[in-house]
Design a protein that fits this description.
The chain has seven helices and six strands. The protein is of the alpha/beta class. It has a single domain, classed as Zn-dependent exopeptidases (Aminopeptidase, 3-Layer(aba) Sandwich), CATH 3.40.630. Strand 1, helix 1 and strand 2 form a beta-alpha-beta unit. The protein is globular and about 65 Å long. The protein starts with 18 loop residues before the first strand and ends in a 10-residue tail after the last helix. The structure holds zinc ion.
């Protein structure tokens, strides 16, 4: 259901073998924040699926806490404690939570982290890309959220925009905007991976012969 277009692989495959966990916020009985025409959980899931698609095209393995409305019974909440237990049982190298913000008169994405330099750097990279994409500048900030606090891997929460802002809500519901926004989250995360970890496939491979010529 994610894509009607064929999933063209991205050139490179520098994310080959990387494991990314994506957690779309809320779901089931818990809609999250409410906009004029939508609920947060729906937008979170759509953007998370677009993000999964970019990572998979780049060769990464993506695990999602839930990937379809049918995954959470409509009368149930997906408790944060259960999410973290599930997330920490995976071999994920990074966690990206997706949420929508809510506050009157505000707009623009914002990236949060709780602790540690790797999470801080990841938040900075993703925020930089989202600022470039949206021409907004909400600063990276620390936030004490259960999932971020208890995840055992570097973790960020991307608040993709304000569902309470009618103009931004319309953008967040637009599949093209969702794909673009997901692209920039992907690019920021990929930059973080490349900066902080050499791809194992490149380390193990022999160096390109042109580098050996004196
Ligand atoms: Zn939320």
């Amino acid at each position: 259901m994610t894509a009607t277009t064929p999933a063209t692989p991205l050139a490179g495959h520098l994310m080959q073998g990387r494991v990314v966990v994506i957690d779309p916020g809320h779901g089931g009985f818990d809609p999250g924040a409410i906009g004029r025409q939508s609920e947060e959980a729906r937008i979170n899931l759509q953007i998370a699926l677009a993000l999964r698609d970019w990572f998979e095209r780049a060769g990464a393995r993506v695990l999602m806490t839930w990937s379809s409305p049918a995954d959470i019974p409509p009368n149930r909440k997906y408790r944060v404690e259960d999410r973290v237990r599930w997330i920490n049982a995976t071999d994920g190298e990074v966690l990206i939570d997706i949420h929508c913000n809510a506050s009157a008169g505000a707009w623009g994405p914002q990236v949060f982290y709780w602790d540690g330099t790797p999470s801080r750097l990841l938040a900075d990279y993703v925020a930089e890309e989202l600022h470039y994409f949206t021409h907004t500048h909400r600063a990276v900030a620390r936030i004490d959220q259960y999932v971020l606090r208890h995840a055992r891997m570097p973790a960020i929460n991307v608040e993709v925009g304000f569902i309470t802002n009618p103009r931004e809500e319309r953008q967040l519901l637009d599949p093209m905007y969702q794909r673009e926004l997901a692209w920039y989250i992907f690019v920021g995360t990929e930059r973080w991976f490349l900066r902080s970890h050499w791809p194992p496939s490149l380390i193990k491979a022999a160096p390109p012969t042109e580098l050996l010529v004196r």
